[in-house]
Amino acid sequence: xxxxxxxxxxxxxxxxxxxxxxxxxxxxxxxxxxxxxxxxxxxxxxxxxxxxxxxxxxxxxxxxxxxxxxxxxxxxxxxxxxxxxxxxxxxxxxxxxxxxxxxxxxxxxxxxxxxxxxxxxxxxxxxxxxxxxxxxxxxxxxxxxxxxxxxxxxxxxxxxxxxxxxxxxxxxxxxxxxxxxxxxxxxxxxxxxxxxxxxxxxxxxxxxxxxxxxxxxxxxxxxxxxxxxxxxxxxxxxxxxxxxxxxxxxxxxxxxxxxxxxxxxxxxxxxxxxxxxxxxxxxxxxxxxxxxxxxxxxxxxxxxxxxxxxxxxxxxxxxxxxxxxxxxxxxxxxxxxxxxxxxxxxxxxxxxxxxxxxxxxxxxxxxxxxxxxxxxxxxxxxxxxxxxxxxxxxxxxxxxxxxxxxxxxxxxxxxxxxxx
Length: 420
Description:
Layout: H1 11-17, E1 25-29, H2 30-43, E2 51-55, H3 62-70, E3 74-77, H4 80-89, E4 96-99, H5 105-113, E5 117-120, H6 124-130, E6 138-142, E7 149-151, E8 154-157, H7 168-180, E9 185-189, H8 201-220, E10 223-228, H9 246-261, E11 270-273, H10 277-280, E12 284-295, E13 299-303, H11 312-316, E14 322-324, E15 334-339, E16 348-355, E17 363-366, E18 387-391, E19 397-401, H12 406-410
Parallel strand pairs: 1-18, 2-3, 2-11, 3-4, 4-5, 5-6, 6-9, 9-10, 10-11, 13-15
Antiparallel strand pairs: 1-12, 7-8, 12-13, 12-17, 14-17, 15-16, 18-19
């Protein structure tokens, strides 16, 4: 059928899974995750030093991080606990990129202890760091060009409104300071647009950073070792939306590299990426059960999941496609608001969504939740976050995070003080 997405689990599979793991749950597709990681690596294989640093914040689960590590992927961390988790999984040294802002001392200290590549967000952080830990031979700075980031006549995002990164003059000053502190190899990092499927985004960003790198080399005499294009490569949440072509993106970056860096005798620069959404979003889904129908001024389908399990629709009005499992080929002749049970009217996975006629007991698959899904969960209304499951390459299913219990919810409270 047109305007559909195909779930990677069937109704029959879900009926078997729920005998052990009740809904709702997040589930991830190991085979597709591995294939996608290999495709990214192949698209940038022209660059000898290429490395992807998975954005841990997108899906901080050690089992998924280990899968990516086995595929040669590093990690992009932004907090103390993300560093700790990465350490436990086995990431060390230059397998870790630490990109943070308003950074506490203890975060910088652990990043240093682990040998991570530290990416300074602000000029003041350089001297701040000097009182915390020794400078490494390789360190980086984040750039913010200001203004609007445009593609053709379209404004893709507004860096001038972002709290991240340094101005052009500041990054020059930061490099000179870092050079005086003993840094020998320098990186440049920037993130200028979010979730774009325009294949020209990375090449345009790369051109901006490559030109900056050439200028910085001339102005400061430093060795620019890598350019980190960060994230921003998006996925098609809508079923008929265009999909990013990673091969075309890689080729576009290569052309910019050959045009700008190679003539400047900077052909040794490594290209890094920090993708989260692109790496995992399409390969995760929420499986939930229809537990109620409501017929008032609108038609409502009530699920046993809520915004605690997937915040993006409530927070951003984000679209996530929904499949009623077992009814993939049925006509979508009903119009529903698909809701959870929070005491908030924005607790809706979909508004006025055409779906096949649903019945209590149906299972639904909410697509593209593999990144910024479970990780954005919370406990409002005392709701508990769900389990995470892995659909393994051999077809088996493994629990990779158990569901929360009331004991977890109360764990930070001393309830004994109230017992008489």
